[in-house]
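Budget justification note: compute hours in this period were largely spent on complex prediction jobs such as the one shown. Inputs:
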Amino acid sequence: MSATPARYAPTPRTTPVRNADRAGYDRALVHAVLDAEYLCHVGFVADGAPVVLPTLYARAEDRLYLHGSSGARLMRIAREGGVDVCVTVTCLDGLVLARSAMHHSANYRSVVAHGTAHRVADEREARGALDRILDHVVAGRAADVRPPSAKELAATGVLRLDLAEVSAKVRSGGVNDEPQDRDLPHWAGVLPVRRTVGAPEPDPELSDGVALPAYLEPYRAG
Amino acid sequence: MSATPARYAPTPRTTPVRNADRAGYDRALVHAVLDAEYLCHVGFVADGAPVVLPTLYARAEDRLYLHGSSGARLMRIAREGGVDVCVTVTCLDGLVLARSAMHHSANYRSVVAHGTAHRVADEREARGALDRILDHVVAGRAADVRPPSAKELAATGVLRLDLAEVSAKVRSGGVNDEPQDRDLPHWAGVLPVRRTVGAPEPDPELSDGVALPAYLEPYRAG
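Corresponding output:
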């Protein structure tokens, strides 16, 4: 959950960035935002109506992976030739309080990825995707768990979305009031928003002698 | 951004809660989640494809209000008799590291609201909704800004969604491994996730004598 260069970009305005041409900078920004968050919001259409659900995810190069119960609606729809999705990831960085009501805003970084997500049929790719999702939660975790059994794998749907139609948007910096509002007697500024991961809370039933692994040490300070 | 009772519920499993009957408990949970977050993710269908965008919002009784540029796609679609939306709000509370890969999870509270959102035509309701959105960001803010001008109001679309088809989902508590996995030598537990709003950063061009208002004092400690 480290800050990305985008967060400190000097642009006070939102910056839509199309990734269609895969320009180096855009790609780096898109990847940085995707790597900085834990949850995405995946949108799809079911019976003609939009559905938006939060879920864990992971990025591998220019692919996104999602997973869920193979019986879940999203996974069932995907079975028939894929499912059109919009996957959105948003990092909230600040609350922008302007002197005027309409210039209030939020500092944020977001990525919106459109496309057809497909069920991953290949067992090796599916296992790799699930490992990625674990390592996205905590780097190093996938190597330190009991891996999925064949039965668990069969009960799990893995979706793959190639990052082809992607845009990133960044709003950073300070207040952007109209010139004629700048002398108004209202306080203006930014409330920075941060997310922190606190100190690990061990399972009360942890076996004797199981120490905090090295990859969790950085979280110990809370 | 205070914790809700739901966060400390003892249920280790997700708890889907339908609000259709407006039972007192469900309603309180739905409201608590909606009041705890800053951003929602609104999903709609444009040209047959799902779109999911992050945006500020506010709740007023059993209504949600969203706003945006009146030229934005969502607002344009809404003009013709409303727009079918799915508004999802998610608070991430923790990362759950189980001994087995497939029991990894997240602690979270989420609300998913479906329905047809309508453009607010009444100026008084629109102004009230924009005030609510400001006060949702920081309680007390709406009374301490230059209000929207008629021109700004004309350029702004306000959407109203009645909370009729709403569900809340809560995952809280600890690790939920299979009994046969409990003696495995992998560390298991929860990494708590918190979001904090830091100390106010004043606009460098703040007029002389403009002090931090009382409603921002609680944020001063960061």
